[in-house]
Amino acid sequence: MLRINRETDYGIVILSAMARSPGERFNASQLAAAHGLPQPMASKVMKQLVHAGLLRSYRGAKGGYGLLRSPEEISVAQIIEALEGPIAFTECVEDGTGSCDHVDGCTAGGIWSRVSAAVYQALHGVTLAEMARPAEYPVTFEPARTARAGRAS
Fold first, then answer.
1. Could you identify which of 16, 18, 88, 116 might form a hypothetical disulfide with 132, taking C-beta atoms 3.0 to 4.6 angstroms apart as the criterion?
2. Cβ-proximal residues to 83 (8 Å cutoff; 6+ apart), any chain
3. In 72-127, where does DSSP find H-type helix?
């Protein structure tokens, strides 16, 4: 199963909350408490988002964190890359064919490159502003079931 890690999930929760009031400043404790997140993890994620250029840190009594850009200018792909690194399904897609010992006989590299690009484009097409809005309908996801070797479908 492919899924984002816990830090990225928390980062999207935090940024989505901030996107609902983009001009305000927030602190990690406040956001962690409001969304049931562990405060140390919220602080860690927010520092990473500052380093990645998605948040700005303010010092002083009225300090905290604020969005560096408007929610419409931040994509889900940028958030994932800030917290997890490049979006790529295989090492050769991320690091190039020089990272693979089997490049000479491989026929899958080009396909994985296409898959990674498609996923990146889909994630890049979703903005933080969209993530901050409540779903307009019940959202369900039913992955396609395929027969696997040795298992009935």
1. 16
2. 5, 7, 8, 11, 45, 48, 49, 52
3. 76-84, 91-95, 109-124
The span from the CA of 118 to the CA of 134, in Å, is 25
The predicted structure's pLDDT at residue 1: 58
- CA-nearest of 65, 9, 60, 68 to 37 is 9
Q: What residue spans define the domains of the chain?
A: 6-132
What average pLDDT score do residues 81-95 get? 77
Instruction: Count Cα atoms within 13 angstroms, Cβ side, for 68.
Output: 14
Alpha helix stretches (DSSP H) within 24-144: 28-35, 39-51, 76-84, 91-95, 109-124, 128-132
Q: Determine the average pLDDT of the residues in 70-75.
A: 97
Query: What are residue 65's phi and psi, to 5 degrees?
Result: -130, 150
Residue with the bigger pLDDT between 78 and 151: it is: 78
Architecture, CATH, for domain 6-132: Orthogonal Bundle (1.10)
What percentage of the chain has pLDDT greater than the value 70? 76
C-alpha closest to that of 10 among 80, 70, 89: 80
Backbone angles phi, psi at 66, to 5 degrees: -140, 160
